[in-house]
Amino acid sequence: MAIKTVINAAGRSVPLEINGQPVIPFKGVGKHRPSGRKYAPPIPTCSDYPENGNKVVSSLEEALRKCGLCDGMTISTHHHLRDGDLISNKVFELASSMGVRDLVWFPSASFPCNDLVIDYLEDGTINRIEGSMNGPLGRYVSEGRMKGTAVLRSHGGRVQAIQDGEVKIDIAVLAAPSADSYGNAKGTGGSSACGVLGYAKADYLYASRVIVVTDNLVDLPCFPMEIEGNYVDYVVVVDKIGIPEKIVSGTTQITKSPDRLLIAELTASFLEKSGILRDGVTMQAGAGGTSLAIAVFLHQILKERGWKSKFGFGGSTRYMVKMLEEGQMGYILDAQAFDLESVSSIERNANHIQYPVFNAYNYHSKGNLTSMMDIMILGATEVDLNFNGNVVTHSDGYLLHGIGGWQNCLHARNVILPIPLFRDRIPVIVDEVTTLCGPGELIDVIITERGIAINPLRNDLIENLKGSGLPLKTLKELKDEAERICGKPQKPEFEEDIVAAVKWVDGTVIDVVRKIRF
Amino acid sequence: MKSRIVITGNYGPKVRSDCEITLELRNQGGMSIDLVSKVKSLYGESIIKLSNEVLAFFSVKDASVKINDSGALPFVIAARIEAAIKKLIDTDLEYLPEFISDNSYSTLRDRFRFSRLYLPGNNPALMINAGLHSADGIILDLEDSVAPEKKDEARILVRNALRQVDFCGSERMVRINQGPVGIKDLHSVLPHNVNLILIPKCESADDIKKVEKEISGIRKSKNLKNQVFLMPIIESALGVENSFEIAKSSENVVAIAIGLEDYTADLGVPRTLEGKESFYARSRIVVAAKAAGIQPIDSVFSDVADMDALKANVMQSKTLGFEGMGCIHPRQVSIIRQGYAPDEAEIEKSKKIVLAFKAAEHKGVGVVALGSKMIDPPVVKRAQKSIDLAVRMGVLSADWADEIQL
Fold first, then answer.
1. What is the pLDDT of residues B79-107, one digit of tens each?
2. Domains of chain B and any CATH numbers
3. CA of B71 vs chain A CAs: smallest distance (Å)
4. Phi, psi values for residue A284, rounded to 5°
5. Which band of pLDDT confidence, cut at 50, 70 and 90, is reported for residue B1?
6. Sign of the C-alpha dihedral, residues B282, B288, B290, B294?
7. pTM given for the model
8. What is the dihedral of CA A368, A448, A430, B157, to 10 degrees?
């Protein structure tokens, strides 16, 4: 059946309906005005809950039964246990054995360990995933093998969808490194510590039913309460919620690649010479090898100049912790800890603050933390000549990554993408992105090992950098250089079928991913 | 009879930007090409087209080709296929990718050679962006970093790299092998604008003369116009003893380098960080080079993770009189360059001495004094050398003296 499509404000052909529900095509940055009131979960009564506060039940299966698990429900999980998560897969294993069908899995992100859910997509337990797809899962979806259509959202967009009632979570199953019998829970302590549980906040506040699963039951009160027991239906105690060495990276590692280091050095030099880096600067960088190297170079400059960053927004890493502890950063506001050093810093440093992404990223709220950030370091799989960015598919058309906080972070004052000009022959700068995830008007600078391209909209930066000695080029020049070296790639071929929709931060549909012709 | 199936190139979980070619020549049945590539959906058609072109160029009509590709660039794929064909067919033909015009520069005898970056000659991944790291020279190495059974395919890869990889102004160097293999190397690489040839394990002026004779023969027969400089590497006790005759063996010898791994092995002593065991040899090389009016170049520093130790090593090397050092990782380049450059205190002191000398000259006074201290002519000469170096490196303006007088 052909689905009616329209051309949205970004020039992309998108449907008016996804998974049987009407959707709004992207209207332009800041153009869509929401109306109505936020969604709210059903009203509970404490007469349904034990007076002694003990909500522990014998097993996850019992908890799911008591929550009334049935066909077609939406089940949410968070991704704080990263690639060490043992709980998400377990939920669907149980659902499958209970004969439940057509569930919607609504994770805050998925990891390679979640590839096991392919079995439950195959046997009909899961209808679709509304969340990020990586590796084999992305391949599975790209080849059109998932029954429903995937919906990809940013971290902030996920909160927006929950709060606006676009996605109604029936049961949130929230793994917690520490919890008490009442359901108060936190990300530290125990053998599966992940640092923070920020991504679970919208889930526990808005889900109809909430199950906390822990392997470290502590005496009440479990404090600080990242998940508040008043919102929790059941607590389940298991042997293990995760595999510790896969939860945090152990130590995050600076890139050893000479080319990536060159990009990092150029980025630091760009930030210094453009005047963006200054005393009181606010910054955010990821945990990738290049970002870490940039953090180290920036730390060095701050130190030499006697400057201090007002705050850094995490994903925290040990390099950020070093800045904090050596006095070059005032605070770390932290939505997730990437390595063990950051996890322990949260307990050690009063100015390393757990800061749920809930407060930071939702576009439908009364302010946006990211728009207050001076320096935003992000990646991309592709950038096109109009500075549009893609983070979900590769040039071969396959879904390979989630959006993460990427779209939300585009609202920062200076959005900088340090990326290699080509990766194993695959050029990063293309005529037109395979999938549009972020409009070019929000992307300011592309930094590659072979030159820096500044968005013509940022004439201020272009003026500032005249005579700086930095290798400034146009995106077209960079693209031509890459194609001189790599050759011009052929285009992947797609079927008409839509396998995934990409939402913009305001819930509108900015683009879709079509089935690969393979 | 030769085996009809051969394998060239590299493939594996850690290999990037390379490919492995399995070629089987047949007597009939035409061509079949089987491509496994992570970039197949983007470059599959062009890889097959290129492969067919190379095979047709060598008149291969009946063969089965298996390509395991991990993002190899066209010049790499072409080199791997050519190497496979040449394992089975004797031919002097060469499938040459386009020579990019950016690479057609020549270099000067007395240019800086502070840092020269070694690249293993059979590893294309490291070649592609090597020019971006601002090394004074880039060495495509055909000698120690290439296994004996890979020499033939590395030679073709290096030739193609000389034509296709942008060296971004770095001096284009090739380290050849010793003996007859080295002669084959020369024939393959020289026609592709090599600026400098490194001659390893050099022990006598005769070693240089042999290479030089071969070079001039190739230059004449191929009508090559570019100048080719030589940098002998001294790696044995005998080489050290003969260093001065090696240094002045030819006007094309612009620098002489020492290789300490082999030298210490020759002496039968361990190589230490402190380097007492090689102090005499290093000093001897410096003296020989300076006496011959060429650049003395120090051995590589092999601990790529320890930047502080590298820095200390460079400072010591500079104190001995060396004017450069080999790099085995791009991250070493800037530290080496900074290390050999005159530092701020040195420049300031030199400025004062040179100004005092000029003032004395101006007044017609024979004796130069700085404060109450007399300055000997050699001190002035050294100060002038530091100033010249600083100006050439761009850390001091050429008209610094005028600026001060203003």
1. 999 999 999 999 999 999 999 999 999 99
2. 5-88 (3.30.230), 101-340 (3.20.20.60), 344-405 (no CATH)
3. 5
4. -145, 135
5. very low
6. negative
7. 0.90
8. -150
- Distance, in Å, from the CA atom of B294 to the CA atom of B288, rounded to the nearest integer, reads 9
Mean per-residue pLDDT, B130-151: 96
Closest Cα of chain A to B265: distance in Å? 30
Residue B362 has pLDDT above 70, yes or no: yes
Q: What is the DSSP letter of A191?
A: T
Q: How far is A489 from chain B (nearest CA, A)?
A: 5
Chain A residue with minimal CA distance to B100? A484
pLDDT at B341 over 50: yes
Q: What is the pLDDT of residue A243?
A: 93
Q: What pLDDT shows up at residue B389? A: 82
Low-confidence winner among A502-511, B136-145, B300-309 (lowest mean pLDDT)? B300-309
Query: What is the predicted pLDDT for the residue at B370?
Result: 79
DSSP-assigned letter for residue A449: T
Q: Do the Cβ atoms of A395 and B46 come within 8 Å? A: no
For chain A, the average pLDDT equals 94
CATH topology of domain A258-492: Glutaconate Coenzyme A-transferase (3.40.1080)
**Residues of B whose CB is below 8 A from A263:** none
At CA A422, angle to CA A421 and CA A425, rounded to 5?
A: 155
CB contacts, 8 Å: A259 with chain B: 129, 132
Contact predicate A160/A139, CB 8 Å: no
Q: Which residues contact B193 (CB under 8 A, 6 or more apart)?
A: B99, B103, B104, B105, B106, B162, B172, B226
Residues in chain A with CB shorter than 8 Å from the CB of B133 are 258, 262
Tell me what pLDDT residue B37 has: 96
Which of A274-288, B140-154, B191-205 is least confident? Answer: A274-288
Amino acid at B290: K
- Tell me how far apart the alpha carbons of residues B271 and B261 are, in angstroms, rounded to a whole number: 7
The CA-based angle B169-B174-B179, given to 5 degrees, is 165
CATH class of A45-130+167-247: alpha beta
Contact at CB, A259 and B43, closer than 8 angstroms: no
Contacts of B364 (CB under 8 A, 6+ apart): none
Q: How far apart are CA B400 and CA B388, in angstroms?
A: 11
B-chain residues near A260 (CB < 8 A): none
Q: Which of A377, A414, A388, A393 is nearest to A263 (CA)?
A: A377
pLDDT score at B112: 87
Phi-psi region of B114 (alpha: psi -120 to 50; beta: other; left: phi over 0): alpha
Mean pLDDT within A160-189 = 97
pLDDT tens digits along A371-424? 999 999 999 999 999 999 999 998 889 998 899 899 999 999 999 999 999 999
Residues B250, B221 contacting (CB under 8 angstroms): no
Mean pLDDT of A360-376: 91
* Rounded Cα gap, residues A422 and A173, in angstroms: 40
Give the SS3 label for residue A456.
Answer: coil
Q: What are phi and psi of A426, to 5 degrees?
A: -90, 115
A471 vs A270, B99, B257, CA distance in Å? 10, 24, 33
Distance between B41 CA and the closest CA of chain A, angstroms: 6
CB-nearest to B43 from A259, A423, A487 is A487
Does ipTM exceed 0.90? no
* pLDDT at residue B374 in the model: 82
Chain region(s) in chain A for CATH 3.40.1080.10: 45-130+167-247, 258-492
